[in-house]
Amino acid sequence: MRKHLFTTFFISLVICLLTQQSQADEFPLNLMFSKKDVPRIQANTQLPMFKEYWQSLLDADVNKDHNILREAFIYAITGDRKRGDLARQEMLEVLKKKRWDYFLEDGKHTLGFLRAGRTTAWMSLAYDWIYDLLSPKERAEILKQIKEKGCEPCYLALYGMRHPETVKGWGFDTEFEDHYEVPDMSRWPVILGHNNFRAVISGGMALGMFALGEQDDRFNDYFEILMDSYYRFIKLINADGSYDEGMSYCNYAMTYLIYFMEVMQRKTGDDLFDAANYLGMIDCNLALFLPHHLEPAGSVNFGDAGNSLNSAVSFWIAKKSRDGVAQYVAMNYPQGHDIFSLVYYDSTVKPILPSDKDYFRLLELDWITTRTGYGMDDLVVAMRSGPPSNHEHADRNSIILKFGGELLLTDTKHPTYDPNSPGWFLRTSPAHNAVLIDGKGHQYHKGEEGTNASKASAKIVRFGERQSYVFWASDATPAYALIDEDVQSVTRTVLVFDEIPCLIVLDKLMKKQNPSIFTARWHIENSDKKGKGTFDKNSFIIFRPHARLYSVCAGSPEIQVDSDFLPLPESFGVFPFIDVTSTQLAREAFIVMAATPLDRNESLPKIKIENNKDQWTIYLTKNNQKLKILVLDRDELPEFEIIEVK
User: Do the Cβ atoms of 556 and 611 come closer than 8 Å?
Assistant: First the structure.
């Protein structure tokens, strides 16, 4: 009997010691990774692709660059007490803030938007990673503020998005210096409920909720609204994985949405990965990939976007899907790394080179791209058609072209959010590679509600791939008719010959009764003050340091080519453009452009455009290549026939 009791006691003691050892080996919350993951993460820091990034974290000027997440992470991975103490001091500074965001409901209740989402996430993760450096009093105060300044304001925001009829008025806390005026915020609960805000709020709040723990009296309320918010957000991700705010905002949203999904799976066992086409997001990222010398990991910047996915997002998708292309994209085409790149990277997923069969892509957004590859010097042509979206510009039927590492037809990246700033003009049609009718573009708003969607829409009405070229056509009539009811038709047809390479653009513009002057405008990349253009009667050349674009134009009525600059103060930059404009008023116009991108030392090709009534013939001779195209201008959409290409 005594032997049996001793055996039972010994087994219980061993189990107790093992349990204590297991607990000692874990972070108290284990929100995003556990201590058993640390050796793997440490090994990742020494991989060639991460070594420089990791060294930049270690070498950061901590006296000027205060970053709670970085310092807490370094302590968690290395045990560097100095960095842990820095994280602790920065957390204590955050506790002194009156609010964690600068938006209010009813002028008094803090709303948790982007800043609160980030702060709640960082404070929750740092609490987990430097727990042993915090006193019991500090721990209690941090959790108290995570709830009061983080989770509760975030809950209030999500509740308002879910029940906009209950909102008593959202606005800025004017004590914050960097706010700007938005005349009408009455629809913000609806507007913000359909963009990246929802994802950022959800990710931060989910980490805060699990930091507080299931014993918190609001846990069930938080959990319910977060799950509701997740399924509302993923409706914004199209079936093909595309996202209408562009890849940089997709990346921002996904950074926090992954926080949400990861902590949910770790704490509840629920895997939410298959609820949306996250793998398709990689394909979308590839379709919009636009590397050039000014931005080696750029993305087609329709609207306010302009960067590709961070490697952390792509590595997470690769890890979850076991997809080699996603792994390759993360390793070779990232916008950059962040600390979770080191966490999500799974070396057992073998990278696979993306297929060269997906170079021509029409996204569900009605954004269309074609390319010769994903390299710096490859040709990329992209056009923005489709419906309105948050962060959009007045850019329907606008074209972007990249070749030789240079943007040769460009779109201004990320203009001001402030509608009272002169820079707001950069969001309008005249600041894009679009058509103008009597100098005006299509419908856009004046920022009355911020950078929300307009009412303008366009649609890809034909597209295809034939031997030696691809083509598409977009109808932007509804967008232009919102400004001028007399507009009958605005279409743009594009042909791209990859091997030559050559771009053909056919603009057909029609009015019902009143004649107008029609213009096709083309912008020159000059953000580095190294872009310029020259022009003649019917041709122009755009110059960049590593490449050029030579274009010959014709039209009915006859056209003239000219150059000018956007009417903005030089403090906003200098924005040159080329205009191809009809020389007389008409109810109908047809403008043809044949353009070929060239290396900086390549000789100019011979391009000629002939016209016989409604028949146009385009001839191009470049090196040993010849192209002859017949174009018929008879209806809203021209027809074309390739007579010769060799």
Answer: yes
